[in-house]
Structures are given as C-alpha cells and as structure tokens.
Amino acid sequence: MFSGWGLSWGGWLDNRRGEWFLLAQLLLITAHLLPPWPAPADWGLGMWPRPVFIVGVLLLLSGFGVAAQAFTALGSSLSPLPEAKQGNRLILQGPYQRCRHPMYQAVLLCSLGVALSIGSLLHLILLMGLVAVLGGKARREERSLLQLHPEYAVYRSTTPAIAPGLPWLDWRN
C-alpha cells in the first residue's frame, strides 16, 4: 500500500510532487499536541464547559470515522502527496459520494474537535492553518486528477470539495 507514493529527498527539496504541502500538514497536525493556549483558566473558567467538551470529542471521533472510511475506500490509490499516483483508480463511492476530499475533511473535523474539547485559541489558529494548507493541497491534487481522469471534471462540478458551502473548502466548476 505504501509503495509508489513517490517520496524522495529531491522532492522534499524542490516540491516536485507537492511535498511541501505534506510537510506543512504534518507540522500543523503535530502542533495539536501542544497544550491549550490560553488555558480555559486564563479566561476565568475553572473548567471548560462540559457540553462544548463533549461536542469536541464527538467531532474528533467522527473525524477518525471519516478517515477510516476514506482510507479503506482509497485502497492502493492512497498517497499522502497531492500529485496523484500513476495508474490510480478514480474513487467515487463511499465517503467520496459526499465530498471529493474526505481525508482532508477528516483532518479538519479532528482539528476542530481538539480545539473545542480543550478550549484553545492556539488550536483554533492551527485549524485555520490546516484549512489554508488542505485547500491548496486539494486544488493541486485536482489538477493532477484531471490529467489522469478526464471524467473528474463532471464529478468536480457536482460534488463538494471538502466542506459544502464554505468558499475556500467548496469550489465546484
């Protein structure tokens, strides 16, 4: 499954397959391990509101669920890079019926879940960074998919990109 991803030292240096998008994504995801800032106690709250915490945990868990579905649906077409693997299959079933990039949707759901569950502005800023990076990564990925799969144009015009109705996360043309 991990073969054919096209990762190389040269790519990390010159971004030939979009490696810098992957690097930015990994750094932002890893930064979610940082403690909340400011801490809810700094806001005068002894404890973060339980309903907000529960919603955050549910979003985090739903993100993991969406990721598992997308991971399974992609099979051997899975790649962490925005440049599509040669010979990949165009997946239009399962979570790909709801949106064109469910793996990115899953990452954003998890990030939002973390930010809400711990009450952290820092983590909300990390979420915004992920929105920017994943929106750009998805656009680059789609240019590659259009070259490999001309039928992708019809799918792109009818299916939301990452999150329906959000301008940077839903472009259909």
TrEMBL record:
Its main location: membrane. This is S-isoprenylcysteine methyltransferase. It is found in: Endomembrane system. InterPro entries: Metal_cation-efflux_comp, Phopholipid_MeTrfase. It is a multi-pass membrane protein. One of its GO terms (cellular component) is endomembrane system. It comes from the Bacteria. Keywords: Membrane, Transmembrane, Transmembrane helix. The chain crosses the membrane at residues 20-39, 51-71, 106-134. It holds the Pfam family PEMT. The keyword Transmembrane applies.
